[in-house]
Each structure stands twice: as structure tokens, then as C-alpha cells.
Amino acid sequence: MNWLSITTVIILTFISMEFVAWLAHKYIMHGFLWNLHKDHHQPDPEKPVEHNDFFFIIFATPAIILFITGIKDFSISFWIAVGITLYGMAYFFIHDLFIHQRIKVLRHADSVYFRAIRKAHKIHHKHLSKEDGECFGMLLVPLKYFKEAKRNAH
Prior knowledge:
Blueprint: H1 3-32, H2 34-41, H3 55-70, H4 76-99, H5 112-125, H6 143-151
């Protein structure tokens, strides 16, 4: 594969992962695996690790398999794994560090985009049960939150 093809595969995989994450969040995490995700909506401040944190193993498994199968000849599966991994890193930085401040960094990141993401996630977390959820994405959020963030800009 040439570098243009590799870059295209990585970017398309990264973008696709937002839709995969949305579907997994809505239908798996708020579905049959709600018992693992519930403590993320109903956190215990005494517990620094949530059951929800184990989803990283579930979601990393396809990338690990693709890395293993593609490393021999750096086939397309390897580059898909790179895209998945980059999305996982973005998830960690945006969701865990920026939104939930699990480690006190990125506190001062401030832009219309970041305020819109934070608001959409706050709206998602106002629902404490698996039903009636909204805003299941991470990087792509409804336009209304961008408009609100822009109106409220300093």
C-alpha cells in the first residue's frame, strides 16, 4: 500500500469509529451490557475505577486482532487497527481527561467545539438509567450545542 492509501484507510477508519462508538454506546452499553456501564452514570466517588472502564478491553480487542493479523506484511488490517487505536486515544483524551477530568489535565481547554462536546455529554449524563438517553456520540454532537456554545462564548 502507498502512503496515500494508508492515510486514507486510517482517516476513514477513525471517522467510522465515531459511528461504531455511537451504535455501541446506544445499543450495547445502554442495552445488554448496561450493568457494566451503569456506574458511569451513577458513579461512586470512593471508587476511582468503574466497571465501565473495562469497555476499553472490549473495544481494543478488534484492533489487537487486526494488528496481529496485519503486522506481517503491513496489510490493510494493520492500518485499520491504527485508525481504531487513534480513535481510542482520542476517546481517552476527550472523554476521560477533558470531559470527566479523571486526571486533572486539559482543564483549561476552551473553544466552541470543546464547550459543545462538554454540553452534549452533560445532557447524556443527566439520564441516570439506560432509557431515554441522548447524545451517544463523542466527537460529533448535535448542531444545537455548537450554536449554544457559540452564543455563550466569552
